[in-house]
Amino acid sequence: MKRGGRLRVMKFLAHLLLMSLLGIKRQEQMHLSDLEMQVAQLCVENTTLLKGLTDISHKFNKAVVDNHVLRSDVEALLLSSILSNSMVS
């Protein structure tokens, strides 16, 4: 093969390699964009879940306090009933 022919083949191969690398770079960029979009969606979902957890936690804590109050009320009523019954007897 003549020197000019080899040079053309080398240029052609270099061009194919460049096109391949550009294609890979484009695919990587698309993948990176997809990942960035997923991160943004997950951040929104995380914020929503954290807000829900906070709301449920507050409701639970209120229910615990209400439960203690009700138990105290029941105990007071029982004592009152026992005292009333002992006075009647």
Automatic annotation (TrEMBL):
Signal peptide residues on this chain, from the entry's feature table: 1-27
Keyword Nucleus: yes
Keyword Signal annotated: yes
Keywords assigned by UniProt, alphabetized: DNA-binding, Nucleus, Signal, Transcription, Transcription regulation
Protein name per UniProt: Uncharacterized protein
Organism, scientific name: Sphagnum jensenii
